[in-house]
Amino acid sequence: MAGTTTGAPTNVTQKYNKGGIGESTLRPDGTLKVTGEFAYSSDMWHEDMLWGQTLRSTVAHAEIVSIDTTEALKMDGVYAVLTADDLPAAKNYGMEFQDTPVLAYGKVRHHGEPIALVAADHPETARRAAAKIVVEYRELPLITDEASALAEDAILVHENRDDHHSPFVPHPNIVHHQPIVRGNVEEAAKKADVIVTGEYTFGMQDQAFLGPESGLAVPAEDGGIDLYVATQWLHSDLKQIAPCLGLPEEKVRMTMSGVGGAFGGREDISMQIQASVLALRTGKPVKMVYNRTESFFGHVHRHPAKLYYEHGATKDGKLTHLKCKIVLDGGAYASSTASVVGNASSLSVGPYVVDNVDILAIGLYTNNPPCGAMRGFGAVQACFAYEAQMDKLAAKLGMDPVEFRQLNAMSEGTIMPTGQPVESPAPVAELLRRVKARPMPPERQWESSEGADVRALPGGLSNTTHGEGVVRGVGYAVGIKNVGFSEGFDDYSTAKIIMEVINGEPVVTVHTAMAEVGQGGVTIHAQIARTELGVQQVTIHPADTQVGSAGSTSAGRQTYMTGGAIKNSCELVRQQVLEIGRRKFGSYHPAWATEELLFEGGKVVTNSGEVLASLVDVLEDEVVSVEEEWRHQPTEAFDRVTGQGRGHVQYAFAAHRAVVEVDTELGLVKVIELACAQDVGKALNPLSVVGQIQGGTTQGLGVAVMEEIIVDPKTAKVRNASFTDYLLPTILDTPTIPVDYIEMADPKAPYGVRGIGEAPTLSSTPAVLAAIRAATGLELTKTPVRPEHITGT
Amino acid sequence: MDFLRPASWEEALAAKAEHPTAVPIAGGTDVMVEINFDHRRPEYLLDLNRIAELSQWEVGEEKVVLGASVPYTQIIENLKTELPGLARASHTVASPQIRNRGGVGGNLGCASPAGDSHPALLASGAHVEVESQARGVRLIPIDEFYKGVKRNALEADELIRSVHIPKATGPQEFSKVGTRNAMVIAVCAFGLALHPEKRIVRTGIGSAAPTPVRAKAAEEFLNAALEEGGFWESRKIITPSIAKEFATLASGACNPIDDVRGTANYRRHAVGVMARRNLMWTWESYRGEGRKLEGAA
């Protein structure tokens, strides 16, 4: 293609195009998923393929004395049994630190760590062979919390660290620590009329996506590998996989396959390297599918946390200062712990103005299950604590909890504790006003002419109450989440846009490496292409590594980033198409010489709507193709001592009001309404926006009342790796979720969009907790709340 | 693993006699979970799905003979008048899909203390009809059926054919505590049935002891108190002190453990609360029936 693919797009704003942005176009994968016809990564099949199986550690911390694979290898149908000694190249991988062994060598550091791999011609054979591998352990003392991690004689989870944080951490069992100091807390505390302290505990939540880790690795004739997997970020996987296979990146060709949910849990590698090394070793395609139990060990979880908070306020309700320490348990391997620490620290104040802060967040190495990315990423735990504090302060001051929050709410121009000003709308007080102004669900809403409707009561169909012991509670919360990758990370996305004429129609192909994990990018991308290029036919090319990185589908960034990249590439395509038009038809009409030309309904038109030419006539058999990277404004690292720095790209805000009925005698909770108000910047697909907000809200509800991976503190073993005992909200646990979104454009973001998927997960949890506290009068400092906490048993 | 598929009840008994280690499977909602989790690897699976009579029930004069494989959905839809307690309990079993497959025979065969149907069977005073090729039929009273954690009174060559459950002669209730509002395994459960014709109350407790149990001391106390106070005739309101003592004794009947689903203390506490509520609900409805009778007279 002639012409340059770089250059600044013009400032022309495309007008309305059918199926473009702002419309609730339907998802192409929607019907398939609902009817069970969608092909997930676990549905793939290849002729002559083998099945891969892992063997995982049964203890949390031990030296590996020996691994005996003799009996496994003897089994009929077994093609390969691999241990760390058999790995072809690099033995470790990792997203931020390369601290994670492909297969454990020397020692195991957590329960369920992969130790060996089997490839067999049947999954059951593979499973049985794995069970025949004998591993002899010499158990080591366990590091399970802050006290054991930082004890003077504490055993080191990782000796000889050489990661970029290691020279700065106070103890080798601390992955990363981030202080933030601003103002003068000691002086400010003297001005406080009330001081409120609190100690909070956040349980280990799991992403619990329904499609387990799975994929297919096919060895290629060139010695490379074709890898079909469900992931959140193809190129990040690629960077980690290739060195472990001893292959150059171009010989590892990755294609996205059907993703059954992610929520952060697919940001790290799971079976990718395992299947690939088995395929390279056997020369056969290898499929791997974790079962549900293994899935609980196959991905990182949300960091459990201990949070220690002290706030002060004057008697007229102004916050004076914040002192806090947030301890995040990163588990045995770093994953994204360091970034989660940065987030927890920089967002620990919440969406409030506090000029004097002394903050410290640390992430630990322990022998608990590794933790990393999950929707909300460090901001969730902090929100749980600061919102509990806000209620305690309001109560102590005798103020309304919403008015107290509004009085201290941040707004555009507020300086964050990191010194970074908030440079786009921050309608925190308005969001609170909106949820508070909603009418309340009627009292005793379970009563009907036929008696109590148990479905509307705590316990539901289990018929535990007909109204006895039931007390209503109402609670509010609001949160702040950063959008996009922070702290100086070179965060970009790439979009390749092709425009051509097929069968007499202008057609656009959008090719990116964006992972569609359920967020609806496939819809948004086509909508942006229609808006920018005025065509109806848009093809979304499968995501693969034959195009540049799209970055991760996480941090609420894909609509902003890959959406922005598509918009940018489309604008460049428009310029090139116009140049062709000018070359062919420039002399026909003087308007061709102007800058203000639009693409509408398959035609080039002037700003006043006069048609200059059809795109078909302009393009004829020319193909215009642009592949370009696009970046958000740069950020910078937080100072390691003061925490100062322009670390974040954008903020998202959501507020919730929770209305709950609590059976105070049995300690059971029914959330009956969870209203949300959120600033979404610009709703590119209103239906998707509401879906994301309702989903995020429900995930927050889950960790408020039921979701928790329970790790035995004595053994560091997971006790509930199943959906029988790791409970997710059912439809009877999911309340009415009225969504009130407002659109206050962020001038720096494409179309003014704001990442929306994470913010509702933050405030939903503390809102539910506040409502349960209101109903019971209990302090309830731990989430999830269990019946034992409410009943004191 | 061999998969045996008898076409008739007689063939099934013969197969079980020949292979006493065979694990019977009907809906598979429990056995398949065990197999999938590798908790057991039976030598033989004995598929009962071809035996149509196991999925049938018969409503007689005094009792319902419920085939071992009658799915919970059928109990909920067809037997809620005759067996209100069991129908209530059936409604709390897992999800609609599982309720379409699973039945009481499986609950009894597995004999997990967390099985949802046990408290209702205990409260109504059911009998389990089992049969072997060698010794024929025997009826095991439900009180003698549960022998230990996941152990029942069946001999190795016996199969469960049906459950004989007395038709309700008075109100029955069932409650189950779980930490989610549907599709949840019991943290603990409680069932209660009034038997006005015998002037007794029977109970059943689930998931709060190694086996499903009756709250016998609570029953004895309550039966005496009701008798003494003439409650059955007068249908007067049960005093709070009676209800409280009944609840305390029900808690005392528990012998629970701490596990990932709940603490022993909570189970004891919750069983007491459910016992009191179940008593008040059933008694209130017994009083309501009395008022209706008076109105009719």
From TrEMBL, chain A:
Looking at the record, the residues that make up the Aldehyde oxidase/xanthine dehydrogenase a/b hammerhead domain are: 35-141
Entry's InterPro entries?
Ald_Oxase/Xan_DH_a/b, Ald_Oxase/Xan_DH_a/b_sf, Ald_Oxase/xanthine_DH-like, AldOxase/xan_DH_MoCoBD1, AldOxase/xan_DH_MoCoBD2, AldOxase/xan_DH_Mopterin-bd_sf
- Offer one Pfam family short name for this entry: Ald_Xan_dh_C
- Using the UniProt annotation, give all residue ranges assigned to the region (Disordered): 1-28
Give start-end positions of Polar residues composition bias.
1-16
- Cite the Gene3D superfamilies for this sequence: Aldehyde oxidase/xanthine dehydrogenase, a/b hammerhead, Aldehyde oxidase/xanthine dehydrogenase, molybdopterin binding domain
- Specify the protein name: Molybdopterin-dependent oxidoreductase
Protein's organism: Streptomyces polyasparticus
TrEMBL record, chain B:
* Keyword entries, A-Z: FAD, Flavoprotein, Oxidoreductase
User: SMART domains this protein is in?
Assistant: CO_deh_flav_C
The cross-references to Pfam families, in alphabetical order and at most eight, read: CO_deh_flav_C, FAD_binding_5
Q: Where is the FAD-binding PCMH-type domain?
A: 1-170
Name listed for the protein in its UniProt record: FAD binding domain-containing protein
Q: Which organism is it from?
A: Streptomyces polyasparticus
